[in-house]
Protein 1
Amino acid sequence: MASLFSFQCLVFSFLSLVLLAPAQLPGTWEVLVADAGIASMHTAVTRFNTVVLLDRTNIGPTRKLLPKGHCRTDPNHPVLKRDCYAHSLLLDLRTNQIRPLMILTDTWCSSGQFLYDGSLLQTGGGIDGFKKIRKFEPCEPNGSCNWVELDDVVLSEGRWYASNQILPDGSVIIVGGKGANTVEYYPPRRNGAVPFPFLALMEDKQMDNLYPYVHLLPNGHLFIFANNKAVMYDHQTNKVIREYPPLDGGPRNYPSAGSSVMLALQGDYSTATIVVCGGAQFGAYIQRSTDTPANGSCGRLVATSPDPIWEMEDMAFGRIMGDMVMLPTGDVLIINGAQAGTQGFEPDQPLGLRFMTLNPGTVPRLYHSTANLLPDGRILLAGSNPHYFYKFNAPYPTELRIESFDVIISVPLPVVGIVEVNLGSAPFATHSFSQGQRLVKLTVTPSLPNGEGRYKIGCTAPPNGAVAPPGYYMVFAVNQGVPSVARWVHLVS
């Protein structure tokens, strides 16, 4: 990645929507697709403004058929020996049309990450997908791109409930999984899977070390959180170089189902703040309790501080199975989960003023739901499937509707003050954690009129791959808290 080069950001189109919501709460909802055909357990937005939706292959008949002649055979399936149903889809955000995709091996509770070239890496899963590596190379919405199951490489260790994170050199680290207290890399390194004892130490009677929260820090090291503790990990030497104090409030990872983000990187990019919110009380998973109150606390820690401590605060609601989405402004939206309603998080406000309640939705989004930022600033919600096979006559039925939540407000024209230019990654969202999610605020010069309502802004690119790993990013211009429709750019090493 070129260091500190300048470029001109041409004008972005700002959305100017007035939000009228019940009870004067901000935010509006709309159903984009009334019946997507599958319940998306994993969701990712591509640079072609399409969305990859993934379920599991052994879930039974879905509501979407594969093209004629594209059935898969599974002699071990309890119901479908010959499966002609789609378990992955591609959604075109421009038309809301859906195209079925062919996935052969089971992606149940797997992990993923976009690579530097824009292709989606997908790793692990259940049953025949345990050691599998797959790729999806996105194409134009009218194209025929599809999943490719890699035959020349497999995972060194089976991965189920693991987490992926792209590294500064464009490779990907794959961390943990059920019974896998190791890390490994794609492309594979010579030593294969490397022991990571921290994960074993964080395993309790109900596990709670699954889907660890992995964030790439601007110093090039990794912040890895499991259960209620975190370490700084040097992925080049495969060594823990720092231990952080424990976070109060009980376990936060799967199956206790909290969530985490790294707040926007900005300024000289030397400071990284991690936030961990929500989760279940210890024992609720073992007891299969449905009425144990969710944890309502959030911990906030400056991971790059020489003396880091957790700063605690409470959300408006306790929440499990929620999703934390970085918005183009640098705010965080907390959505989905076992509590009704949605919350917006304002990380730059003082303690006690960081949360505001938004307009609640009407579709329950519980286990296996996802939330992703779209290039136009909306949040795409999909999934919620707490059943082994699709069930529609249940208190919380399998959810096939896809919604979007709009948090954009009107902006007076012309542009006033500084226009921010912010880079937002396209993460792989699953199980209350968006793998690879980050927002980088660029250093900018004041905007200059460029004729016909257009503005020109001088921007300084991120200094290295530790701040912004190579790959495709949504670039948002933000003025007075209002984001533009994003343009996709490719950062290369």
Protein 2
Amino acid sequence: METEQRTLTCQVETSETNGSSLVGTAKKLLFRQMLVGVSDGRFFLGTFYCIDKQGNIILQDAVEYRNTRHSSPSPMEQRCLGLILIPFSCRKSCHVDCSIEEQLSLLSLKE
């Protein structure tokens, strides 16, 4: 397992030295709280762990929130899931918990 982690780190560093700004942006998002909305109306709140080339997102310590339309005391139901993969095809929105300055720098609107 330790060897796998070293290999992954080397690949990321190689990509970044090739000028890949996307890898640098993804690194800035690591271990931040992320809220991801999916096409069926559910939301997942967890710690951003990684994203692959296809756009699938992995969240750790994730909690699922879903709307309950039937008569219950709370309009939202939640359950703890742990580590989950959210496919790109299901993802509708992503929000990261960070300051406005960080948001602007991630969007490359600020010099």
